[in-house]
Design brief:
single chain; alpha+beta; six-stranded mixed β-sheet; binds guanosine-5'-diphosphate
Length: about 375
């Protein structure tokens, strides 16, 4: 091949020799106008992913590059999994470049929540996580909500420079960029999207009128997210498509809630209280007595408590217990990548269980 061909889906270099390796495309497909690698082809046509991932080292290389460029950095997070989808250290990597923060998947947040409040919350949290964004937007890439406003802001803040879009896998980065392209050109999808984590592999540039570009960077896999412990067929359960309907439970102490078989919430002590659960609507919540909970999980994980699936149970990590006493009114107990439980008043003693490797944390209530 004289000229290096690039996949229009993920940006990887096209090769025709080895079907098992990255960037493979059959020679016959090279005649087409939009060349895609086999991986993107399968993904688009069969919604099926071939396993390839970017190592943490490669991702670091990309981040290290950012500081050397003169650009606007747009960092995308999943508002439903804010902390789990956060890229630590981005301010340092960005160097002198400004960072615009975009919270995606706003469509999942209950309608009762005021946008303004959520944006203020994002600003506060960002500062605590060491980022001082030049501005903060809330969008839904899937629904097209606020995309025009975000696109206009990007155009203003980039000030004639390139734009680098960064985010961990599954935050909706590709969907967002596709939207922006539609907004600008009216064309259809040109970048791979799917609900499988880790589908955008290499840098891809979308040219802008002034000779600059929007650059899509590959996503990093945040290993502590729930998505890595769920069977690919079950990812739809934890990748919600609709507004999350909070489910409120009045619990007496010594009661337990199971979220499918993925997580568990024990209300250990503190008198009768209400707890609001924000998890995808498709995850069933099962209430039981704390004293029966271990036994219930042992006997029913993989069937009544699902996902995970029965056949997965052997390799599914054990649930690890994290105990907390709630010190501030309106605290979220966050199960990384699954959702959270809001505890309204102080003093409750609770325990949160997640598969070993997945993070649990407390934060000031988002809602
Ligand atoms: P990437 O890995 O960051 O490029 O993420 P993708 O664009 O492939 O999206 C990951 C998953 O999130 C897919 O299942 C998308 O359908 C979904 N998604 C993307 N944007 C939104 C959104 O605004 N709302 C909702 N509910 N889902 C979204």
């Amino acid at each position: 091949m004289s000229e290096q061909l690039i996949c229009t889906g993920c940006g990887v270099k096209i090769q025709t020799e080895n079907p098992e390796e990255l960037g493979y495309a059959p020679v016959s497909s090279l005649e087409k106008e939009a060349i895609v690698c086999q991986r993107c082809f399968r993904l688009k046509n069969y919604n099926e992913i071939q396993d390839v991932s970017l190592t943490d080292d490669d991702f670091l290389k990309i981040l290290n590059e950012l500081g050397n460029r003169d650009a606007l950095i747009v960092k995308i997070v999943d508002i439903f999994d804010f902390n789990g989808s956060w890229l630590p250290g981005i301010q340092r990597f960005a160097g002198k470049n400004p960072v615009l923060l975009i919270g995606n998947k706003a469509d999942l947040v209950p309608k009762s929540v005021k946008q303004r409040k959520l944006i203020d919350w994002m600003k506060k949290e960002s500062r605590e996580l060491g980022l001082n964004p030049i501005d903060v937007f809330l969008v839904s890439a899937a629904r097209g909500y606020n995309i025009r406003e975000a696109a206009e802001a990007i155009d203003e803040y980039r000030n004639g420079k390139d734009v680098y879009i960064v985010g961990c896998t599954n935050v909706g980065k590709s969907t967002f960029i596709n939207r922006i392209i539609k907004e600008v050109t009216g064309e259809g999808d040109v970048i791979t999207t799917s609900h499988f984590p880790g589908t955008t592999l290499d840098m891809i540039e979308i040219p802008l009128e002034d000779g600059k570009a929007i650059v899509d960077t590959p996503g990093i896999i945040n290993h502590h997210q729930m998505a890595h412990y769920v069977d690919k067929r079950d990812l739809k359960y934890i990748t919600p498509k609709k507004e999350i309907k909070p489910k409120v439970y009045q619990l007496n102490e010594q009661q337990t809630l199971f979220f499918g078989g993925l997580a568990r919430f024990d209300y250990v002590a503190g008198g009768r209280r209400s707890f609001s659960c924000y998890v995808p609507n498709e995850i069933s919540i099962h209430r039981t007595k704390l004293e029966n909970a271990d036994e219930l999980y042992k006997n029913h994980a993989g069937e009544m408590l699902t996902p995970p699936r029965r056949e997965q149970m052997e390799e599914f990590p054990e649930l690890v217990r994290h105990e907390f006493t709630i010190k501030e009114a309106k605290t979220d107990v966050v199960f990384s990548g699954l959702g959270w439980v809001t505890v309204n008043d102080v003093g409750a003693k609770i325990a949160a269980y997640v598969p070993k490797g997945v993070h649990v944390m407390l934060r000031r209530s988002l809602i």
